[in-house]
Structures are given as C-alpha cells and as structure tokens.
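User: quick one
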Amino acid sequence: MIHLSAIEKSFGGVPVLKRVSISVAEGSVTALIGPSGSGKSTLLRCVNLLEVPEAGTLVLDKETLHFTGQKPSPAAIRRVRRQTGMVFQNFQLFPHRTALGNVMESLLVVLKWPEAKARQRALELLDKVGLAEKAQAWPAQLSGGQQQRVAIARALASSPRVLLCDEPTSALDPELALEVVEVLAQLAREGTTMMIATHDLRLAASVAHEAFMLEAGEVVEAGPSAELFTHPRKERTQRFISSLGNDVPAGWPTAKAEA
Ligand SMILES: Nc1ncnc2c1ncn2[C@@H]1O[C@H](COP(=O)(O)OP(=O)(O)O)[C@@H](O)[C@H]1O
Ligand SMILES: [Mg+2]
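Assistant: Done. Structure below.
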C-alpha cells in the first residue's frame, strides 16, 4: 500500500537517506527505530512530501511519484498530503483553538465540510481517543497525553490512508505515554495503517507488526517486530536495543500478529 523504493535524500550535500526501501502493507503498523540522526523523521517527512527526495519512488495507494530532483506538482503534493496524517513529538496543536476546534480545522479549511458535519466527525474522533468530555478545553488546559490524543484525532480527521507518527510518546512521562500507546494500539487493532518512528520499545512492541532499524540513513535490519526486538540478527541492532534499556513492562498492551 505504501512503497518507498531506493529513496535518497541529502541536506547540503550530506546524504541522510541512502537508497532506503520500505513497504508497508495496508492495515499494518511499521516501527522505525534507530539512533538519533539515523533518518527516521526525514523518512516519515518524505512520505508526506514535507521533504522531497532527490531520487527513488513513492507509491501511496494509487499515487506513484518518481523523484528526479524536481518538486512534484502542487496537485500531486496535495493528493499525497490528503492521504497522510502526521503526529509530532511535541503535539503542535493550535493553541488558540479548543480540542474540538483543532480536530475540525482541516475538515473546515481543507475539505470545506459544513460546520455541523465537521463538528459531528470531530466529536466522534475525540470520543474514539477518550476525550469527548474535553471537547471545549484549550490545549493549555490539557495534559501532554491528552494533547497528544487530540493531535491523533486531528491527524485522523480527514480519514488518511496512513498515520505517520514521529516519536509520539517521547515528550511524555511514562503514565501519560501509556494512554497514548493504548490509543495507538486500539487504532492498530482497528486496522489503521501506521508508520511510527520511536525510541520507545514499549510503544513499538505494543503496536508494530514490522520493524526497520535505521542507522546513518540505511536500513540495517528489517523484520517482524516481535523477532527484531527479541532476537535481532545484526550485532548493531542488538547493541541499539540493549542501549534503550526500556524493556516492555508487564501490563502493557502487546501487538497481535496480523491474521
Ligand atoms: N532540515 C534539515 N536540514 C539539514 N539537516 C537536516 C535537516 N533535517 C534533518 N537533518 C539531518 O539529517 C539527519 C537525519 O535526521 P532525522 O531524520 O531527524 O533523524 P532521526 O529522526 O532518526 O533522529 C541528521 O544528521 C540531521 O541533522
Ligand atoms: Mg526524529
């Protein structure tokens, strides 16, 4: 459903992604792990064209883009963006909008939905992330975990084909991270396609079916997450995973293998 093939991206002549190829099946969750600076965020940003690769191919549902060093057309960028939702480490809610207003924004502004329909959809999504009673709250009145759940509802508003999450729990204390993990795990069970860059093995082990280990812009190892996290084949992956030192605690949700 998403195919990235031989993606190359550099900044100021320094290669950051080196012929990276990743496929993500519809309804599956893919974790991107790897040390800081390995290219995880850049790769996610290439999927929604916040960064444009210099070479390679992106297939997103019916859209195929071959990168040749030129910027894709604004129409192609729009089509790709509409099929992706993005969740950031630091939430990035609009501070001057309520939780409800944040979730409604893209429906009103981008999709031009009528107010009542957008409100109903936004309330359903806030309910889905367990925040129906916070619809009228301002971001500053919400905990970090609640803000991130609003951000997830906002990213889902336009029914994207894929949810891209960049370190969604990294700014949160463990208890608040858990409520975000539970929401993402529920979305995974419902078949939401997701790509999640994370340092958090608890998150990755809870929701990811597949995992890719990146280092210095290259895929070091890939495989089913249960195997990659518990029996990494590459010494580099082993070292990285043990350096995280965040084993999965008892009681955390665990990803179910795809039927
Ligand atoms: N906009 C940018 N301009 C210049 N260098 C960048 C930019 N974005 C990322 N980089 C560099 O690209 C590399 C990969 O960064 P990033 O994708 O953020 O890695 P990760 O998310 O795995 O920590 C790093 O060396 C980073 O400094
Ligand atoms: Mg990053």
